[in-house]
């Protein structure tokens, strides 16, 4: 029998480490550390160790107004062309008059999330690699700690690396089992726009990024200091040189002037404060701060091949996946670890690469794509008991409201606010630079879904009051910008696209632009319902605007239409697809993350969703595989979902930009598009949770999509469900042995176990 005790999970031991028997051969094998602001990725090199540094706030570019204030003059003409079936001509008109001004996301003013720099530890060069024994490199996600160890000529060397959650510094400790054995030079550099100097025994990296206007963009400063036991320390050129030391501590403090911060003062104060504490105290406070979040949830799925190095474990999983259910538990907890590590309250949400980048030109600018990616980055947080990590996204969205109001007026002559398909830290809301993808205008509505989901988990009324103006403003825009579908009186968006996908017109031409793509119809319906519900909760239901929204809600285009072949239609017309296996599956938004297509309702819609997914196929970039996994979990198809999880665990090494098949994971379990995109990690984590528990406000399914491989035994503690509840449960041979659901006050839920509904009163906690 297994049991829960003192916040820890007991029973079947579940590994919490990624580990390897060799240094990283490429950046995508290095191990990610982060405290929500500072990122470090050490490669464990023996002669030269390279540690890539990041700061979540380090962006080039600057605020800009790329609105075309003449665009609304062309809106009626564009809509009329679409209504008359001339979508290709409408698309051409949009490219001329209805996109952003200037180069958009391809321009320097748009900006890019960039690598901060590279810290190099160059050891004495006497290391005979062939003589190294017992090499091990590991990341312990329970401790937010990376270690490297090896033996050479009778001496054991240990390295520890972590980014402090308490003191906001990166710390590296080097030790040897014999005195006087540590010799190295420490250097810091950056590929461009930075200068490395030394002063008072410190390494200092200072720079200023390009703002795209006059070159005087964001400024930053990084300070590196070392403390030694035994031996000596000196500065030679642009390096700190350490000779014959017993132990070395390296401290990294960094900051930017993001939002006007006094970065030079903060780096000085942060480093000075950290240097006054012992290593033991620094680490104890770091671990306590981190563990407060990480230890809220425990998960075991039974046996685990954690005795294998992680890269070998992935290969073994590919051959015998059912022999290592523990890999899914590790991947889930790794997703939680990555969230805790890549964002924090008061800063920025994780971008396309979370916190970690090794290039000046990060793929896709490392920005925030609003047609699934930033949303997927947050899907797992509610169930993962990390709800407060939604706050940076809320702050980002709040920052879009003012520029989004200008965009709504410029393009649609509408009130409220809108964001299209991409944004950045500078508040960009304009369409992208090409109609084919850039005119998608459901981004703001989709963001509202993330914000609303957090309310459903927390039922925090103060939070609801905070987000209500965001929901209200987005609803204002859509209520004004909807147009009528000819002959049927439906209200829908126009112009828009189904994200990044295209179709064939009867004349044989290809087009992207349409009116009322299915995703828009589903998002607008959901938003209208949510803002009405929120108003009622807040006592604002007498607002005349909401009366109008209620009336429009009845006239919205159908959320789901079935094509002649039985699939769910992606567009308002049953167009032929150009790419039937396109990576985006936007027309199933109502299945996930939405709730329009419920397992216990609309069996015809469920069947149509399955047909749609079967035609799309199971391959794609990692985020698309994760998305499909989530769809199948909502359909309670555990084996199909597990097949997709197995596919997500396919080892990859390629880093080229890929838009089609071939996703998977790198050796460090970061997901590959390729290249590295973190949304696959977060989407996969969301999928694992949905396989175990699915919740609505007053009902919850237990083990709704559990695959055969996980049925033997398992337990979860601390998973959140909607309605401000937390669940602990345990199962064996696919049957629930016991479960408890906790709430601040007892209330009744409907719980589905083995397809049977039972009434359950939650426990007060």
TrEMBL record:
One Pfam family it belongs to: Glyco_hydro_95_C
Gene3D superfamilies in the cross-refs: 1.50.10.10, Golgi alpha-mannosidase II (2.60.40.1180), putative glycoside hydrolase family protein from bacillus halodurans (2.70.98.50)
Keywords linked to the UniProt accession: Hydrolase
Residue span(s) of domain Glycosyl hydrolase family 95 catalytic: 278-692
GO molecular function: hydrolase activity
SUPFAM superfamilies on file: Six-hairpin glycosidases (SSF48208)
Coiled coil: none
InterPro entries hit by this protein: 6-hairpin_glycosidase_sf, 6hp_glycosidase-like_sf, AFCA-like_C, Alpha-L-fucosidase, GH95_cat, GH95_N_dom, Glyco_hydro_b
Keyword NADP: no
All copies of domain Glycosyl hydrolase family 95 N-terminal, residue ranges: 18-260
Name this protein carries in UniProt: Glycoside hydrolase family 95 protein
Species of origin: Sphingobacterium ginsenosidimutans
